[in-house]
Amino acid sequence: MTSAEKISTSGHALQGIRVLDFTWIHAGPSATRVLADQGAEVIKVESNQALAVVGGPSSATARGLGQRHNWNAGKRSISLDMKTPQGVAIAKRLVGVSDVVAENFSRRVMPGWGMDYQSVRNIKPDVIMLSMSGFGRTGPWKDRVSYGQTLQAYSGFTELTGFPDADPCGPASAYSDAVGGMAGAQA
């Protein structure tokens, strides 16, 4: 049965679509959470080295763990050490059986694993790749790393919040991460 046949007979829009999810923190995992909610099989690639930050700054608290579980609900999970040839080899095998590869790292991470867009396409020519780096893959800011609060400050959003007689304070959460996640899911 083809992916198109699976989709046409399912109750969910993305039934039969497999997403290999390399995302972390908030924006990326919330994008792939939407895809899982729409019926996609999402395989979350995690590292036991990065678990302390995947839930956000408060990941050691119940709130942080709750966020992590919320963003990754409905997903399958595999822990790979992408710093080893074995971890990269397993990830590349998963690319070969996935329809979508999603990541939200700086532009250096995926190529460092030998998994830039062209390399991923060499494994699976019809793959869709969602790359959500905050400052893009080209241009003068391409090497900058981004988090929600960073983008809010660069965009001027932080200046729009607070009270008239006080310094700008920014929102209590990374609003741009939530918006970025929704935009990523729609892409």
TrEMBL record:
It holds the Pfam family CoA_transf_3. The keyword Magnesium does not apply. Signal peptide: none annotated. Transmembrane segments: none annotated. GO terms for molecular function: transferase activity. The keyword Transmembrane does not apply. InterPro entries: CoA-transferase_III, CoA-Trfase_fam_III, CoA-Trfase_III_dom_1_sf. Keywords: Transferase. PANTHER family: L-CARNITINE COA-TRANSFERASE, SUCCINYL-COA--D-CITRAMALATE COA-TRANSFERASE. This is CoA transferase. It comes from marine metagenome.
